[in-house]
Specification:
Layout lengths: L24 E5 L11 H5 L7 E5 L22 E6 L12 E5 L1 H10 L7 H10 L2 H25 L5 E3 L7 E6 L2 H10 L5 E2 L10 E5 L3 H8 L6
Helix pairs in contact: 4-6
Length: about 230
């Protein structure tokens, strides 16, 4: 297995040419966690090759208005496997529910490897509820709120010279680089705010934090303390 690390100087953008041609399976997150960068669907589709599985994790795609750049539903990309989650927007992480979209033979192979009773009845009921017309409309409205709240968060972070945010963020979180990140994170923790350590992600060091997008009141409260030791 080989991990391709996207670079800050490139805006954490994916370059399809950087993926080795001999790879028989490629896994991409879109939007990517933790950078929140949304890669163009056409760029990801360029990674398709005969005999290759192209796995795209779209767990956070429903937080993107209109789900633009989504590959879910595409049938013209050979070897495409799309993973979707119902645990992000709906806060159902405890149910461990999601679904996969792929060619019939790929689904059949996954089914053969699937353990017995992989999904509980409550999870199935919740999944059905989250896929109805009313729920989809609610999710789209939530994605628009997230976009507005994310813009507010980025604008607030821009006021601090010592903070550098990944401004191309399109997901429900923002990746930031800040001096004394560990001290900032600890201070936020004491004040009741949780920030994800960046050094738990490959390629990032202890100067990075991942901040969740929250409502403006919460963001304003946390931003006042985000760079103080």
């Amino acid at each position: 297995m080989e991990r391709l690390l996207l670079r800050e100087e490139d805006g954490f953008q994916l370059d399809p040419k950087a993926v080795p041609d001999e790879a028989d399976m490629v896994v991409v997150g879109n939007p990517t966690n933790p950078t929140s960068v949304l890669h163009p669907a056409d760029d990801i589709a360029l990674l398709a090759r005969p005999g290759r599985l192209l796995v795209v994790d779209e767990a956070f795609m429903d937080a993107v208005p209109g789900e633009r750049e989504a590959l879910a539903g595409r049938t013209d990309v050979p070897g495409l496997v799309v993973l979707r989650s119902l645990t992000k927007t709906w806060g159902l992480a405890g149910l461990r529910i999601g679904y996969v979209l792929a060619e019939p033979r790929t689904i059949a192979a996954l089914e053969r490897a699937q353990p017995l009773w992989p999904v509980s009845t409550p999870a199935l009921v919740a999944a059905e509820a989250c896929m109805g017309p009313a729920a989809l409309a609610e999710a789209e409205a939530a994605s628009l709120r997230i976009a507005a709240d994310r813009a507010h968060l980025l604008a607030g972070l821009a006021e601090f010279e010592e903070v550098r945010a990944v401004e191309a963020a399109e997901g429900p979180f923002v990746l930031v680089r800040v001096r004394r990140a560990a001290q900032v994170r600890e201070r936020l923790r004491r004040l009741g705010f949780a920030a994800r350590r960046g050094d738990t992600f490959p390629g990032l060091d202890d100067e990075w934090l991942r901040l969740a997008v929250r409502d403006r009141v919460t963001t304003n409260r946390s931003s006042r303390h985000s760079t103080r030791p």
